[in-house]
Amino acid sequence: MNSWLSPRILVAFALAFVGALFAGQMTGSAERILVVFVSMLIALFVAADPHDHDDPPTDAVMPYPHNGADVSAISSHPQLQAFIDASADAILMVENARVTAANQVALRLLGTNIVGQNVRMAFRHAGAIERLTDPDAQHTGHPIRLTGIGQKNQLWDMRIQTMGPSQKIVHLADRSGTQAAEKMRVDFVANASHELLTPLAAIKGFIETLDDPAAGDDPATRSRFLAIMATETDRMQALVRDLMSLSRIEAEKYDPPQTPVDFADIIIETVDQLRNSQKDRGADIVVNIAANLPPVMGDAGQLRQLASNILNNSLKYGRAGTPVTVSLTPSRSGVMINFTVADVGDGIAPEHLPRLTERFYRVDSGRSRLVGGTGLGLSLVKHIVDRHRGHLEIRSTVGKGTTVSILLPIAQS
Fold first, then answer.
1. Beta-strand pair 401-409/391-397
2. Can you give the pLDDT at residue 230?
3. What separation in angstroms does the CA of 301 have from each of 176, 259, 304, 339?
4. Cα 401 versus chain centre, distance
5. Is the pTM of this model over 0.90?
6. What is the pLDDT of residues 87-139, one digit of tens each?
7. What's 351's DSSP letter?
8. 335: CB partners within 8 A, 6+ apart
9. What structural domains and CATH numbers belong to the chain?
């Protein structure tokens, strides 16, 4: 037989073809490239196997052909394990409803002893078991959404491709991150709508009350209601302003600032403004700025917003009459500047710390609204720090207070 039509060459072509079909079902370009790359490598190894130089006899019994090729050799190929281990997603080979091979990701997900087991024991998921045990199922590689494999809330896309009689390749891609991002988007819209509707409802109610001659003609009532309406309007303005800032910073997060900025001057200006605007708490600010600090590479407007948000939080949530200590010093390595603000107050419980930078997350919703917070302050700070390629750390002890530390890279000379 012509060497170009040998079974091994046909297998290689079939592998490349099936890999291309499988990649065509992927939604991400990186996943397509990985699947095509792995399938082409497998095809090359199959075609160039040094142990097969002779054509098979013409009367040899050929295994089951799939698209004109011998695909039964795939699961027994000596390089198969190395190829599937190269994937960042879970990949399994299933034959006669039994797992014959699995890469390291699949072993970590489903268990280290799944190879050789029935798929019922390996997956323990009714939807996956139904598809993998049905001999008449038509597998096109389209994703099947699965929930509950691995951790309870993990979301997976399972793709199955038929490779031969009762032989299938299974690909599991984790979509939990996509689901979490979508949930954050939905929660963000819901929270923003709620935060805007609450003051609007209050303003509308007071307008209707003032429209009543009995209340509108009373100077004391009118003055009190108008003051509340002004406060609610200011609250809406602050929220819209923060939403616009957050949107702008997110749009610029891949564009790091390129301008040297004197961060020490920004801290001094911010402290002076707070001392003038908050007579009761402004005097409690204590400033320690090291001499001859180099500039940082930054956006001056965003750094002012960062400093203002951090200092305002400390003044609001620290105990009245206690110091709010502001420090600006070089980092230990000398390549960054360390901005630290520490207050003395009730502190924050450990379970809340990881979520403080989430949009609209509040430890105490009632108190946050009482002091006028929008719920976006620390989220803005986190986005600004990320855009500046810095690092944010929040430490707190219940009953003692909270310390916020921010590292920003200095401008290169």
1. antiparallel
2. 84
3. 36, 12, 5, 17
4. 29
5. no
6. 878 888 888 888 888 888 888 888 888 888 888 888 877 777 877 887 767 77
7. G
8. 409, 410
9. 3-174 (3.30.450.20), 176-251 (1.10.287.130), 256-413 (3.30.565.10)
